[in-house]
């Protein structure tokens, strides 16, 4: 099991879980990654929306789950709760066969430069609640980004890097993630406002 080798780099733990026997469900993440369940689960769920690829709408399901998990973080939940249907939902071949190995590669790059910084702040209960709200904002922004615009990638990527900062205990990585996500949300709002203005002008004209 992954939790028996916590001294291993997180990327190795993730790959060990991927190669282990048994179904790869969202609920299983809670059993394997313990206290880091929220961050690990949100990282995996938001990685697919962070890719500039057509996903057939499955990412909206993932984003909705992230909103639910973010609410639990705000409320101070220590363990992840999900309805049975979602808990037993398979991550799918697109996630386990392609996305997770790609995630592990990207994580290794961060692990080369990351080190524990600001760990006490990250582990503080109020900080976890704040990050929960931030992750909800990123998931909602990604979900409401204009279809086929590619604008959902930045807030989703921000959520991924933010969660990686939590997992690695590095507030610098976390801050980079928040900055990416905020930039993505700002871009979506700017483009949305421009589209609304254009539509109003077309209607009034």
Element layout with pairings:
Layout: H1 10-19, H2 26-33, H3 37-50, H4 58-74, H5 84-87, H6 93-113, H7 119-122, H8 125-144, H9 153-168, H10 171-204
Characteristic terms for this protein:
10 helices; mainly alpha; 72% helix; 205 residues; single chain; 0% strand
Fold and architecture overview:
The chain is mainly alpha-helical and 205 residues long. It has helices spanning 10-19, 26-33, 37-50, 58-74, 84-87, 93-113, 119-122, 125-144, 153-168, 171-204. It has one domain (2-204). It contains 10 helices and no strands. The termini are far apart.
Strand-residue proportion: under 5%
Give the mean pLDDT.
83
What percentage of residues falls in helices of 4 or more residues? over 70%
Number of E-state strands: 0
What's the number of structural domains? 1
